[in-house]
Write a structure and sequence with these properties.
The chain is an alpha/beta fold. It is built from 7 helices and 13 strands. It catalyses: oxaloacetate + H(+) = pyruvate + CO2; 4-hydroxy-4-methyl-2-oxoglutarate = 2 pyruvate.
Length: 231
Amino acid sequence: MSVGNRVYLKRELPSKEIIEAFKTIPAANIEDCMNRIYGLNPEIKRMSNPGKNMVGVALTVKTRPGDNLMIHQALEMAGEGDIIVVSNEGDRSRALIGEVMAQYAQCTRKVAGLVFDGAIRDIDEIAQMALPVYASGYTPSGPFKEGPGEVNVPIAIGGVPVMPGDILVGDGDGVIVIPKADAAAVLAEAKVVCEKDAEKVKAAKEGTSNKQWVGEKLAKKECEFIDDICK
Protein backbone atom coordinates (compact mmCIF):
# COMPACT_ATOMS: atom_id res chain seq x y z
CA MET A 1 0.00 0.00 0.00
CA SER A 2 1.30 3.46 -0.91
CA VAL A 3 -0.48 5.38 1.88
CA GLY A 4 2.26 7.01 3.91
CA ASN A 5 4.80 6.47 1.14
CA ARG A 6 3.73 8.52 -1.89
CA VAL A 7 4.45 11.68 -3.83
CA TYR A 8 1.81 13.77 -5.57
CA LEU A 9 3.33 15.66 -8.47
CA LYS A 10 0.64 18.32 -8.92
CA ARG A 11 -0.91 21.09 -6.79
CA GLU A 12 -3.69 23.59 -7.28
CA LEU A 13 -2.07 27.04 -7.01
CA PRO A 14 -3.41 30.55 -6.37
CA SER A 15 -2.71 33.31 -8.90
CA LYS A 16 0.74 34.89 -8.97
CA GLU A 17 -0.87 38.33 -8.63
CA ILE A 18 -2.44 37.43 -5.29
CA ILE A 19 0.80 35.90 -4.00
CA GLU A 20 2.78 38.98 -5.00
CA ALA A 21 0.29 41.32 -3.29
CA PHE A 22 0.89 39.71 0.11
CA LYS A 23 4.60 40.64 0.04
CA THR A 24 3.99 44.15 1.37
CA ILE A 25 1.64 43.20 4.24
CA PRO A 26 2.90 42.18 7.71
CA ALA A 27 1.97 38.70 8.88
CA ALA A 28 0.19 40.14 11.94
CA ASN A 29 -2.17 42.26 9.85
CA ILE A 30 -3.09 39.28 7.69
CA GLU A 31 -3.57 37.01 10.69
CA ASP A 32 -5.98 39.52 12.23
CA CYS A 33 -8.21 39.02 9.18
CA MET A 34 -8.49 35.28 9.88
CA ASN A 35 -9.78 35.46 13.46
CA ARG A 36 -6.21 35.03 14.73
CA ILE A 37 -6.12 31.22 14.46
CA TYR A 38 -3.85 30.65 11.44
CA GLY A 39 -0.49 31.53 12.98
CA LEU A 40 1.99 28.70 13.53
CA ASN A 41 3.04 27.93 17.09
CA PRO A 42 5.70 30.50 18.09
CA GLU A 43 8.16 27.67 18.76
CA ILE A 44 8.71 27.80 15.01
CA LYS A 45 11.01 30.81 14.66
CA ARG A 46 12.99 32.49 11.90
CA MET A 47 16.55 31.13 11.91
CA SER A 48 18.05 33.05 8.97
CA ASN A 49 18.48 36.69 8.02
CA PRO A 50 16.49 37.29 4.82
CA GLY A 51 15.85 41.00 5.32
CA LYS A 52 12.40 40.60 3.76
CA ASN A 53 9.10 38.83 4.27
CA MET A 54 8.75 35.21 3.21
CA VAL A 55 5.82 34.80 0.83
CA GLY A 56 5.08 31.78 -1.34
CA VAL A 57 3.01 28.64 -1.86
CA ALA A 58 3.19 25.48 0.20
CA LEU A 59 4.90 22.38 -1.09
CA THR A 60 4.04 20.09 1.80
CA VAL A 61 6.03 17.21 3.24
CA LYS A 62 4.95 14.70 5.85
CA THR A 63 7.85 12.71 7.22
CA ARG A 64 8.53 10.51 10.20
CA PRO A 65 10.50 12.16 13.01
CA GLY A 66 14.15 12.78 12.21
CA ASP A 67 14.02 11.55 8.58
CA ASN A 68 14.60 13.81 5.56
CA LEU A 69 14.34 11.49 2.53
CA MET A 70 11.07 13.08 1.40
CA ILE A 71 12.49 16.56 2.02
CA HIS A 72 15.17 15.75 -0.56
CA GLN A 73 12.42 14.64 -2.95
CA ALA A 74 10.47 17.84 -2.34
CA LEU A 75 13.57 19.89 -3.13
CA GLU A 76 13.83 18.16 -6.50
CA MET A 77 10.27 19.20 -7.25
CA ALA A 78 10.46 22.74 -5.86
CA GLY A 79 11.09 25.96 -7.71
CA GLU A 80 10.91 29.71 -7.42
CA GLY A 81 7.97 30.80 -5.27
CA ASP A 82 7.64 27.49 -3.43
CA ILE A 83 7.92 27.16 0.33
CA ILE A 84 8.75 23.66 1.52
CA VAL A 85 6.68 23.04 4.66
CA VAL A 86 7.60 19.97 6.69
CA SER A 87 5.53 18.13 9.29
CA ASN A 88 7.93 16.09 11.42
CA GLU A 89 5.58 15.47 14.37
CA GLY A 90 7.37 18.24 16.25
CA ASP A 91 10.45 16.10 16.91
CA ARG A 92 13.68 18.01 17.64
CA SER A 93 16.08 15.16 18.32
CA ARG A 94 17.58 15.29 14.81
CA ALA A 95 18.22 18.12 12.37
CA LEU A 96 16.17 17.84 9.18
CA ILE A 97 18.54 19.97 7.09
CA GLY A 98 21.91 21.68 7.34
CA GLU A 99 23.88 24.20 5.33
CA VAL A 100 24.31 21.96 2.28
CA MET A 101 20.58 21.45 1.75
CA ALA A 102 19.79 25.06 2.61
CA GLN A 103 22.30 26.34 0.04
CA TYR A 104 20.91 23.92 -2.54
CA ALA A 105 17.39 25.16 -1.81
CA GLN A 106 18.48 28.79 -2.11
CA CYS A 107 20.95 28.74 -4.98
CA THR A 108 19.88 25.82 -7.18
CA ARG A 109 16.15 25.42 -6.56
CA LYS A 110 15.59 29.13 -5.70
CA VAL A 111 12.76 28.38 -3.31
CA ALA A 112 10.97 31.13 -1.39
CA GLY A 113 11.47 29.56 2.02
CA LEU A 114 11.74 26.51 4.28
CA VAL A 115 9.51 25.82 7.30
CA PHE A 116 10.03 22.94 9.74
CA ASP A 117 8.31 21.83 12.93
CA GLY A 118 11.66 20.44 13.99
CA ALA A 119 15.35 21.18 14.23
CA ILE A 120 18.03 22.20 11.74
CA ARG A 121 21.82 22.31 12.06
CA ASP A 122 24.72 24.47 10.88
CA ILE A 123 22.90 27.35 12.54
CA ASP A 124 25.87 29.75 12.37
CA GLU A 125 25.92 29.46 8.59
CA ILE A 126 22.15 29.39 8.05
CA ALA A 127 21.73 32.43 10.29
CA GLN A 128 23.63 34.48 7.69
CA MET A 129 21.62 33.26 4.71
CA ALA A 130 19.12 35.35 2.72
CA LEU A 131 16.82 32.32 2.36
CA PRO A 132 13.96 32.46 4.90
CA VAL A 133 14.35 29.42 7.14
CA TYR A 134 11.96 28.74 10.03
CA ALA A 135 12.45 25.93 12.55
CA SER A 136 11.78 25.08 16.18
CA GLY A 137 15.42 24.60 17.19
CA TYR A 138 18.81 23.29 16.20
CA THR A 139 21.05 20.35 17.03
CA PRO A 140 24.25 18.79 15.62
CA SER A 141 22.56 15.39 15.33
CA GLY A 142 21.84 14.57 11.70
CA PRO A 143 18.78 12.91 10.11
CA PHE A 144 18.05 9.50 8.70
CA LYS A 145 17.30 9.11 4.98
CA GLU A 146 15.05 6.08 4.93
CA GLY A 147 11.44 7.31 4.73
CA PRO A 148 8.59 6.70 4.63
CA GLY A 149 6.78 9.96 4.02
CA GLU A 150 4.53 11.88 1.65
CA VAL A 151 4.80 14.97 -0.54
CA ASN A 152 1.96 17.34 -1.51
CA VAL A 153 -0.56 15.97 0.97
CA PRO A 154 -2.52 17.79 3.71
CA ILE A 155 -0.38 18.27 6.82
CA ALA A 156 -0.56 19.96 10.20
CA ILE A 157 2.34 22.03 11.48
CA GLY A 158 2.53 24.28 14.50
CA GLY A 159 -1.12 23.59 15.26
CA VAL A 160 -2.34 24.77 11.84
CA PRO A 161 -3.54 22.72 8.85
CA VAL A 162 -1.71 23.30 5.56
CA MET A 163 -2.86 22.18 2.13
CA PRO A 164 -0.55 21.98 -0.88
CA GLY A 165 -0.76 25.34 -2.64
CA ASP A 166 -1.82 27.35 0.40
CA ILE A 167 -0.04 30.70 0.77
CA LEU A 168 2.44 31.18 3.59
CA VAL A 169 3.65 34.54 4.88
CA GLY A 170 6.51 34.81 7.35
CA ASP A 171 8.36 37.70 8.96
CA GLY A 172 10.10 38.36 12.27
CA ASP A 173 6.90 37.58 14.16
CA GLY A 174 6.55 34.09 12.71
CA VAL A 175 4.59 32.27 10.00
CA ILE A 176 0.91 32.31 9.05
CA VAL A 177 -1.04 30.14 6.62
CA ILE A 178 -3.61 31.55 4.19
CA PRO A 179 -5.95 28.89 2.74
CA LYS A 180 -5.74 29.29 -1.03
CA ALA A 181 -9.52 29.27 -1.45
CA ASP A 182 -9.78 32.31 0.85
CA ALA A 183 -6.70 34.18 -0.38
CA ALA A 184 -8.47 36.85 -2.46
CA ALA A 185 -10.93 37.75 0.31
CA VAL A 186 -8.20 37.78 2.96
CA LEU A 187 -6.01 40.00 0.79
CA ALA A 188 -8.76 42.58 0.32
CA GLU A 189 -9.44 42.75 4.05
CA ALA A 190 -5.74 42.74 4.96
CA LYS A 191 -5.14 45.85 2.85
CA VAL A 192 -7.81 47.70 4.82
CA VAL A 193 -6.44 46.45 8.16
CA CYS A 194 -2.96 47.54 7.13
CA GLU A 195 -4.15 51.09 6.41
CA LYS A 196 -6.05 51.31 9.71
CA ASP A 197 -3.04 49.96 11.59
CA ALA A 198 -0.85 52.69 10.12
CA GLU A 199 -3.36 55.26 11.38
CA LYS A 200 -3.27 53.70 14.87
CA VAL A 201 0.53 53.82 14.95
CA LYS A 202 0.46 57.48 13.93
CA ALA A 203 -2.07 58.28 16.67
CA ALA A 204 -0.01 56.37 19.25
CA LYS A 205 3.06 58.42 18.38
CA GLU A 206 1.18 61.71 18.47
CA GLY A 207 -0.76 60.99 21.66
CA THR A 208 -4.16 61.11 19.97
CA SER A 209 -5.22 57.49 20.49
CA ASN A 210 -8.86 57.01 21.47
CA LYS A 211 -8.85 54.58 24.40
CA GLN A 212 -12.51 55.04 25.35
CA TRP A 213 -13.21 51.48 24.29
CA VAL A 214 -11.19 50.12 27.25
CA GLY A 215 -13.55 51.54 29.86
CA GLU A 216 -16.58 50.54 27.85
CA LYS A 217 -15.36 46.96 27.53
CA LEU A 218 -14.60 46.66 31.25
CA ALA A 219 -17.99 48.11 32.13
CA LYS A 220 -19.68 45.59 29.87
CA LYS A 221 -17.80 42.81 31.67
CA GLU A 222 -18.86 44.27 35.04
CA CYS A 223 -15.31 44.85 36.20
CA GLU A 224 -15.14 46.29 39.74
CA PHE A 225 -12.95 49.34 40.40
CA ILE A 226 -11.91 49.73 44.05
CA ASP A 227 -10.51 53.03 45.33
CA ASP A 228 -8.26 51.41 47.92
CA ILE A 229 -5.04 49.39 48.39
CA CYS A 230 -5.19 45.65 47.93
CA LYS A 231 -4.53 44.05 51.36
